[in-house]
Amino acid sequence: MRFRRLASVLATVVVGTAVGVVTNAESAHASGPWEIYTYTRGPGSDGALDGCVGVQEPVEENSSPIEQDRCGIGNEWDMLEIDPGLWQIQFGVGAGKCMNVKGASTLNSAAVIQYTCSYSASNNLWHLDKVTNVGGLDWYRIRNQRSDKCLNVPQASTAFDINLIQYTCGAARRNDLFTWGPA
Q1: Helix, strand or coil, per DSSP, at residue 103
Q2: From CA 131, how far away is CA 82, in angstroms rounded?
Q3: Tens-digit pLDDT profile for residues 45-70
């Protein structure tokens, strides 16, 4: 099985702070670990990104929910391409836990959790679909291989500690857009 790590990083200035942002899905790892930013929490009018994808406590256990969290508090992700265009998104570099749709559900509003990584479980495999560029940042939909539904911040909430779900990908939704930069 071939592993390709995401490689090139484009440096972008956001509120006076250099933030590396991927230029395409093929280029998201070599400089990892990453913070995955939610569009619902930014970019604000000042360009700031302060909402990140994290794991609810206890972070070492299977079935812990994936949530919208604050950035800069250890929410580090690693992305491994295991087949062309097909990715595992792992919490904590080398921790062996992957972003996963609970119970391999194909339904809208199914919980997204972390679970032990498996190369044969399609509910922990994701496509990174570039959608738009806003303020110099490429924004992606993170679409599940099994369900063909997207990682989603329910009701476009801007609150922290909101558990993420999968939902039908939407053309004009901001709650299913994500980008990433070095943690």
Answers
A1: helix
A2: 22
A3: 666 788 999 999 888 899 999 999 99
